[in-house]
Amino acid sequence: MKGSLLAGAFCSFFLAGAAGAADLPLKAPANPTPATSPWTGFYIGGGFGFRASQTSETSDFTSRGGRAPQPPTPIIASSEPLNGIALRGSAFAGYNWQVTRQWVLGIEGDLGFADQTTTFAGRPFPDQSFSSFVASDGIAAKTTWDASVRARFGFLVTPSALVYATTGAAWQHYEISTTCRSFVCTDFLVGFPGGPFLITPAVTNNSTTKPGWTIGGGIETALGGHWFARADYRYADFGSSTFTITRFSTFLPFNPIANAFDVALRTHTVGFGLAYKFGDEVVATGAPAGWLDALPVKAPSAKATVSSSWNGLYTGLGLGLRSSGTDATTTSASDPVLGFGAGVAASEPIGGTAFRSAPYLGVNWQIAPRWLVGIEGDFGFANQSTSLEGFGFSPGVFAFELNKSDTFAVRTTWDASARGRVGFLVTPALLAYGTAGAAWQHFTVASTCDSLACGGLAPAVVTESTTRAGWTMGAGLESMLSGNWFARAEYRFADFRPTSLTLTRQDGVGNPVSTSFDVGLRTHTATFGISYKFSGAAPPI
User: Fold this and answer.
1) What is the pLDDT of residues 248-262, one digit of tens each?
2) Distance CA 503, CA 333 (A)
């Protein structure tokens, strides 16, 4: 549901304001419909960006020794997150029909590839009641190629700038593997006559190509001749798939061991692309009348020149998403009885993706006809939380693991940055820029341990909050709209060094029970923004 709302917000945003490759005059001339349709035609292109997957695995039933399937034990954790982020390359092709002066319809297909694997360690079976707690064992989700076939519905903000919504069918290929190669699976005394037993195979693998649906939007700008640049976002939902794995044991009462589990998958994809259109070139000869005429525009100064049109202070608002690659790694425990030690699964993934809004403020200096430098700051907010079921303390403290009511969660909220920008004017109205600087990310860690396994430790809920400094870098495209209005599409990566935290509780006689752990955090942020520049309007291009 959150993904659908996010996709809808993006589509509304794209159709409310987007980039143009040419400036608009105060009053649009009443241009007749062109004799030819310059946006009509076949095109091919390539793109680069990232794909964030939201994947969860949930145990369905377990059968041992051929007995009737049994649902998961009610008090035992039965689900884990397998979210991840990966860089993605893609190729796309499509055909446009310019059905009126300002409306373009089209069909497009794309094929993308992003090799991303997330492993939940210490759980060799989907049924967490059989957990090894050993780092070499685990369950993993791997996403690889994706594809889509979609319709596009576009509006020409200017003759050379198209904003569009897109929706259609999508496919995602992914694999779910489990690994059980530790001593728990190869030589473990289970308390039954016969002693040690062996579980095989050590590794299982299930793969599928799942159909689903996708929705999103983007902006596309003519660069000159037959070349176009684009930025887009898409949300895709592939529903849930059911898998079954079977292992065999030399301990005959357990043979075979069958596990069924469900995997739900959704993705967020952000891409920047370059395309070549066959046929007529797109020539920006004027601006069509439309909603942009209603924007407040300062009259152009008689002394204004193209070389100074990008100078000045500006403020804007961005909408987009932030994907966090987060992991929690336990480094020490106050009491060996807690079970922390060498070889245990002391690190788990806990990332996620959320809708983000961000106002920004900056100033530009056009130091040469085609070069620009600037400084910018932004403040963003995205409320995203990922929780690990069955963790009363941080990962690896297996004396307090497995109970469903016990959780360990990381929540990211606000972020900020202060950056420099260096830009190159591809056309007088289209800026390509790089940006880098300092970044800050606020997050909270919450631990809940209120099950019987916690033995009355208090308090039941412990939270730790911090704001971590780091660095960020990225790139984007920015284009003039009408007068003082600009639009942009931007991507940034940020890295925040691991933060060391400690969770402490008291037992019944007042002795402290604590674990120390590191939280590693990296973020990928995509922003589509619209801004207003506080200076004379740019002259017509």
Assistant:
1) 888 777 788 899 999
2) 10
- Reply yes or no: is the peptide bond before residue 69 cis, omega within 30 of 0: no
Cα separation, 284 vs 376, whole angstroms: 30
Q: SS3 for 254?
A: helix
d(CA 179, CA 125): 8
The pLDDT mean for the chain works out to 86
Q: Which domains does the chain have, with CATH numbers?
A: 1-294 (2.40.160.20), 296-541 (2.40.160.20)
Indicate the helix (H) or strand (E) that contains 268: strand 257-277
- Please state, in angstroms and rounded to a whole number, the distance separating the CA atoms of residues 541 and 537: 12
Q: How would residue 337 be classed by pLDDT, with cut points 50, 70 and 90?
A: low
Contact residues for 89 (Cβ-Cβ < 8 A; gap 6+): 46, 47, 48, 112, 113, 114
Rounded-to-integer distance, Cα 136 and Cα 345, Å: 8
Farthest CA pair distance, the chain: 97
Q: How confident is residue 196, by pLDDT bands cut at 50, 70 and 90?
A: low
Per-residue tokens: 203: 């590794």
- Contact, 147 vs 112, CB < 8 A? yes
Helix, strand, coil share of the chain (percent; to 5): 5, 65, 30
Q: For the whole model, what pTM was predicted? A: 0.86
Indicate the DSSP class of residue 112. Answer: E
Q: Tell me: the pLDDT tens digits for 55-86?
A: 999 999 998 888 889 998 899 999 999 999 99
Q: Which residue, chain included where needed, has tokens 């050993």?
A: 134
Please give the structure tokens belonging to residue 305.
């020149």
Residue 27: CB atoms within 10 A of its CB come to: 9
Question: For strand 161-179 and strand 203-224, is the pairing parallel, antiparallel, or unpaired?
Answer: antiparallel
CA distance 507 to 457: 5
Q: Is the dihedral of CA 143, 148, 154, 158 positive or negative?
A: positive
3-class DSSP state of 292: helix
User: 407-427 and 371-389: which strand pairing?
Assistant: antiparallel
Lowest mean pLDDT among 187-201, 311-325, 378-392: 187-201
